[in-house]
Amino acid sequence: MKKHTFYSEMAYIIGLLMLAFGTALMSRGGFGVSMVVAPAYVLHLKLSCYFSFFSFGFAEYLLQAVILTIMMLILKRVRVIYFLTFITTIIYGALLDLAMIISPQIASDRYALRIGVYMTGIMLCTAAISLLFKTYLPPAAYEVFVKNVSQKLKISIFAFKTGFDISFCVLSAALSLLFFGKIQGVGIGTAICALIYGALIALFTRLLEHFFTFENAFNFKIFKESEGK
């Protein structure tokens, strides 16, 4: 079967859009956001009560900056590409805030609709991450962390991703209990995501590689610095 060309720059744009709107849909579903963004969501729920500017997107800026710092300490190197990654974080955060504004609230008693919206969000997010792994442009800090640290530790990227997600799920629950004295912003959907995200990303990656050949439309050398060396 002849494969179609998919430009990596387009994968970057589509991936960020899908990730932001997928996250917003999961939030609207009300079963708990994905484990990776759950800590930022819990921080947003708590601190937005005191600071109006502390949006979901702003919380993501803050947490991803911490993730990038930890990654550089583990890798024992600092590169320009890692700071460019933070630009992606800002773009993603802005798209996330926009998606939260335009996505509709769903009545809590409409369970079938909530489940459908939530599952759509999961599929969008995992497909988006698969796309972002196919671009040389800097993805969000979470993906950069998983890609680089898994290479450093010589662990399968999909196995490392699952472990990373479960760790964030536990962190989210701990923050929720600390802030609210109960589980809030984290739900059964968060736990399910922690178990299936890695497998879904692997599935979407195989599908993308089956149907598409990824090529670069442009030659931005600054983004092509090797991260695995």
Keywords:
229 residues; 3% strand; mainly alpha; two-stranded parallel sheet; globular; 8 helices
Structure description:
The chain has a two-stranded parallel ribbon. It has eight helices and two strands; from the N terminus they run βααααααααβ. Helix 1 (8-29) packs antiparallel against helix 5 and helix 3 runs parallel beside helix 6 (141-153). It has one domain (4-215). It is 69% helix and 3% strand. It has helices at residues 8-29, 38-47, 56-75, 80-102, 111-132, 141-153, 157-180, 188-211; strands at residues 4-7, 212-215. The chain is mainly alpha-helical and 229 residues long.
- Chain-averaged pLDDT: 86
Strand order of the largest sheet: 1-2
Radius of gyration equals 17 Å
Domain count, please report it.
1
Task: Summarize the helix and strand pattern as letters.
Answer: EHHHHHHHHE
Q: Quick one: biggest sheet?
A: 2 strands, parallel
Q: What's the oligomerization state?
A: single chain
- What is the molecular shape? globular
Helicity range of the residues? 55-70%
Residue windows where pLDDT falls under 50 for at least 5 positions: none
Q: What portion of the residues fall into strands of 2 or more residues?
A: under 5%
Distance between the termini: 34 Å
Structural class: mainly alpha
Helix segment count? 8
According to DSSP, the number of beta strands is: 2
